[in-house]
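About this split. The held-out portion is used to measure sequence recovery: a designer receives only the C-alpha cells and must propose an amino acid at every position. Recovery is the fraction of positions where the proposal matches the reference. Here is one held-out target exactly as it appears in the evaluation file.
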C-alpha cells in the first residue's frame, strides 16, 4: 500500500535512483527531477507532501529552492541533502524553511525515519488545512448528509425555495440541523454573497434581544453609551436566521411583523425608522399553531412566517443515515484531535442504530466526539459509548422496570417529557413542575445532557 508521494531533486542520476529505490520499497510513490526547474514544475502539477533536494543543483542553489518551494507550497516539507562537512548549508536550509537536512553518504537507513516524520507532519498539515476550510466555508446543500427519503424530501423543498426571497419556517426537534438548513438555503440564494446572520431568540432577555435585533441609540438606556447597529442592519441585503422563534416576546413579535410587512423598524430609543432589505428564515421546535391557539404567539406573525414550511425529520426517523453521519463526525473529530481513526466496528454502529436519539444529530455528534477522544485504537468500538447505550434500559429491551427503581422511572419520565416538548427544556421543566436548574442537574446526573 503506497503511503504518499514524495519528490527527489538531484542531478546525480545514480544517487537519485538509489534513493528512489529505497523509498519505493518503503511504499512511497516516488517522483524524480534532475533540476530545480523540473522539480518546481512537478510540484505545480500535483500535491507532493515531501521533497528531498540536493543543496547543489545545476540551475539553482538548494537553499534558494527551499525558500521558493515553501513560499509557493507552504505545507510541503523539504529535506535537504548536503555534502559531507557542509553543516552550514543544512542550517541555512532550515532557516529557509526546510524540515531537516541529512548528509550524503550517511547510512541510508537514517533517511527512512526522517522521511516518515516529514511525511506525517506534511499529511497532518494538509488534513488540518482541509478541516479549516470546512470550518470557515459556508456550505450549501452538499453539506447536508443523508440518503433517507425523509431528509431528501426536506432538501428538495429547501432547494426550490432557496432561489426565491420567500420567508421560510423550519420546524423540527432540537438538534435536527435547522441552522445548517438555513445556511444552505442562504448559500443557494441570490443573496449568497451577502451576510448570513444567525441569532437564538431564547438566549437573551426581552430587553437585550430587542437591542441585539434592532440596535439602539446612545442614551436610550443605562449603559447605552453609543449608537449600536442591530443584527437586522448587519444582515442588510442578506439573510437573518431567527432560531427558537417561538420564544419571542409578544412585543418583539409585533416589531418582527413590521419588518416582514414593511422592511423597516425602530431602534431602541429612536423615532426615525430604519429600512433594511433582509430575507427572514425562522425555526422552532414548538408547535406554533398550538401556541397561536393558546394566544402565546401572534396569529398574523405566524401566517407571515409560515408561508413556506419545511419539517426536518428526527434522527430516529432516518435510521439509515446514522452510519453516514457517524462516519462524517468520526473523520471530522479525528482530524481535530489529530488521531488516526479509520473506522467503526459493526457492533458500534448497531448500538447507534438501536438508540432512540432524543437529542438528534447534535447528540450523535457529541457521542462520536467523546468516542474519538477516548479511543486508544484506530477503530471505534461499543466500549466507547455511554453506558446507557451499551446496556439499553430494561424498558427498551421489552422487560418491565423494577417498581422499586425510582431513578430509572424518573429518568424514563424525563425522557418522555423531553420528547413531548421536542427537546424544549424550559417547557419540560414547567410540565414537570420543577425549576429549570433542577432539570439541568437531573439531566446531567442521568447522562441526558
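Reference sequence for scoring:
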Amino acid at each position: 500500500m503506497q503511503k504518499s508521494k514524495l519528490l527527489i531533486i538531484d542531478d546525480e542520476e545514480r544517487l537519485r535512483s538509489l534513493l528512489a529505490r529505497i523509498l519505493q520499497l518503503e511504499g512511497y510513490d516516488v517522483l524524480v527531477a534532475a533540476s530545480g526547474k523540473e522539480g518546481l514544475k512537478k510540484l505545480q502539477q500535483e500535491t507532493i507532501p515531501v521533497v528531498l533536494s540536493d543543496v547543489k543543483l545545476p540551475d539553482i542553489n538548494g537553499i534558494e529552492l527551499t525558500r521558493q518551494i515553501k513560499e509557493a507550497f507552504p505545507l510541503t516539507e523539504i529535506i535537504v541533502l548536503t555534502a559531507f562537512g557542509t553543516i552550514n548549508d543544512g542550517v541555512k536550509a532550515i532557516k529557509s524553511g526546510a524540515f531537516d537536512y541529512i548528509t550524503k553518504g550517511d547510512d541510508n537507513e537514517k533517511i527512512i525515519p526522517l522521511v516518515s516524520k516529514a511525511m506525517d507532519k506534511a499529511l497532518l498539515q494538509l488534513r488540518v488545512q482541509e478541516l479549516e476550510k470546512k470550518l470557515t466555508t459556508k456550505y450549501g446543500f452538499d453539506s447536508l448528509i443523508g440518503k433517507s427519503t425523509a431528509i431528501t424530501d426536506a432538501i428538495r423543498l429547501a432547494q426550490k425555495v432557496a432561489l426565491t426571497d420567500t420567508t421560510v419556517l423550519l420546524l423540527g426537534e432540537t438538534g435536527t440541523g435547522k441552522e445548517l438548513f438555513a445556511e444552505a438555503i442562504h448559500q443557494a440564494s441570490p443573496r449568497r454573497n451577502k451576510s448570513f446572520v444567525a441569532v437564538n431568540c431564547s438566549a437573551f432577555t426581552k430587553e437585550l434581544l430587542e437591542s441585539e435585533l434592532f440596535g439602539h441609540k446612545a442614551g436610550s438606556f443605562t449603559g447605552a453609551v453609543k449608537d449600536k447597529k442591530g443584527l437586522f442592519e448587519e444582515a442588510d441585503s442578506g439573510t437573518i436566521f431567527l432560531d427558537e422563534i417561538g420564544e419571542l416576546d409578544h412585543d418583539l413579535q409585533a416589531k418582527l411583523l413590521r419588518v416582514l410587512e414593511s422592511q423597516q423598524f425602530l431602534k431602541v430609543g429612536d423615532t426615525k425608522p430604519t429600512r433594511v432589505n433582509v430575507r427572514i428564515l425562522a425555526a422552532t421546535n414548538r408547535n406554533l399553531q398550538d401556541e397561536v391557539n393558546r394566544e402565546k404567539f401572534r396569529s398574523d406573525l405566524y401566517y407571515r412566517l409560515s408561508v413556506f414550511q419545511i419539517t426536518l425529520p428526527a434522527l430516529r426517523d432516518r435510521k439509515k443515515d446514522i452510519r453516514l453521519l457517524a462516519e462524517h463526525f468520526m473523520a471530522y473529530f479525528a482530524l481535530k484531535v489529530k488521531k488516526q481513526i479509520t473506522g467503526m466496528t459493526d457492533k458500534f454502529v448497531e448500538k447507534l442504530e438501536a438508540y432512540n436519539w432524543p437529542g438528534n444529530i447534535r447528540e450523535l455528534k457529541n457521542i462520536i466526539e467523546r468516542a474519538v477522544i477516548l479511543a486508544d485504537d484506530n477503530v471505534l468500538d461499543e466500549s466507547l459509548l455511554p453506558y446507557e447505550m451499551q446496556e439499553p434500559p430494561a424498558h427498551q429491551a421489552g422487560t418491565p422496570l423494577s417498581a422499586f427503581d425510582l431513578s430509572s422511572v424518573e429518568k424514563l419520565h424525563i425522557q418522555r417529557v423531553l420528547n413531548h416538548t421536542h427537546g424544549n427544556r424550559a417547557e419540560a421543566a414547567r410540565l414537570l413542575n420543577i425549576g429549570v436548574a433542577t432539570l439541568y442537574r437531573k439531566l446531567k446526573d442521568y447522562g441526558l445532557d
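Annotator remark: The radius of gyration is 29 Å.
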